[in-house]
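Notebook, p. 212. Picked up where the previous page left off. The plan for this session was modest: take the two constructs that came back from the sequencing core last week, fold each one, and keep the raw output in the notebook itself so nobody has to go hunting through shared drives later. Recording the first one now, exactly as returned: residue sequence, then the structure token string.
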Amino acid sequence: MHNRNEYKHISVLLQESVDGLNIKANGTYIDGTYGFGGHSKLILSKLNKNGKLIAIDRDPYAVAYAKKSIFDKRFSIKCITFSQLESLIKRKKLIGKINGILLDLGISSMQLDNPNRGFSFIHDGPLDMRMNPTIGQSAYEWLIKATENEIFWVLKTYGEERFAKKIAKTIVLNKKNFKQNELQSTTKLANLIKTIIPYKKNNKHPATKTFQAIRIHINNELEEINVVLKSSLKLLAPLGRLSIISFHSLEDRIVKQFIRLHSSKQNIHRSSATSQIESQYFNIPILKMLGKKKPTKTEIINNPRARSAIVRFAEIINIYDHKKI
């Protein structure tokens, strides 16, 4: 494995995302995606001795790095997924006591720039794409077993790839012709796609959407986001904040729709009432939308990967039925 110091990482929307949490010096906060620790370190700098920061990351290399770089009694980190966060907070007896949750969705520069992780076709590497390389199927293992229809569905749904059918058919054809070695590395798969999709030099590489789609599928990313958003309503204290950075339309759509749904007076359908008491609160929104921010031109110049980022904010304003959500 490459040394993490080889990879330059600049936290995207760093100040904006942390400012959006409205940090209380003695509060308890969650960094849901530690990565290189940029957000965690800034949050810690705003806490007093009674404040706490709980960080998680599903990447064991990120967790190992954190344990070697932050020595602070106020800080703890676990190698878990978004969907396991609620159980962790429950064990810590902090349900409904979290003052803010920050989520930096997508992949880190370390994951993207390390050829051994298989996320990018810029450098040749094994076609892996797992955020935790010790668990589950690699991208290559999935492609070898997947049917043409399964590949098509993933590319269309998670990549919004208009050539999904053509790509899926070509991949399956290569499997049938015993050319599976074409799928074993990132550059081989990218080059295969390049031969069947029109490509203009100044445009995005034709394999970009395919790689995004396979990565999202392999890591169950969108479902993980849905679960952690739902959990956040239980975890946050009154006036607790959500600060969520997303990098593509699929992620942002989920976040935007979630905040809108729970900011609406019609957030729960009346037919789901289980008691007279609960039904009193149907027209009371749970969240307050606090807007969004995008990177400045200066940030995009300094960090081109920030160009598609957007951070959205929300605040818990009612927790009357958070245990039933």
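Okay, moving on. Second construct, recorded in the same format:
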Amino acid sequence: MHSPSGVHPTPRRSRRRDRLLCSCHRENPHGAVVSETVISQEFTDQSELRRRNRAIVEQYMNTKGQDRLRRHELFTEDGSGGLWTTDTGAPIVINGKDRLADHAVWSLECFPDWEWYNIEIFETQDPDRFWVECDGHGKIRFGDYPEGYYENHFLHSFEFENGKIKRQREFMNPFEQLRALGIPVPEIKRKGIPT
């Protein structure tokens, strides 16, 4: 049957097929058609990657005692970790898995019973990046100072590569470490600040 204008209407079956195609495909920003199956698989892969990486963050944060001597195994060969808030203003960075193993020995001697607690792990839109907020406490034994008891509030940043930690950064208040070591803490006078 012809329309009065002479233009043939789209058969009902074709319109339905178009709708089905629209429900199964979509265009990416470059105009290419992307299968919903591919998108679903990517989402599944991202979710699984995030889950595995999060489990490593949990393992890192809950490692105690002698097990800390093996924590460097969670890193890539060229991975790094360290303290980004120091008295000098420059970060202390330990580069490479071997040096991280050496640092674990030093850390166990200086912080023999250290533990993190009140641990909260925050995922990001990137499955290879995580943030952690927590508290930590334990003995502190730096050779030039009397043994003290150290506690502080911390933020940790984790960046992953191929299922291993590529970079770990720790942030804390250095003044609390000064207090734990018996070092006088200067006072900053903030006149007029509303509190």
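Notes on construct two before I forget. The helical segments are 12-24, 36-61, 97-110, 174-180.
Flagging for discussion at group meeting.
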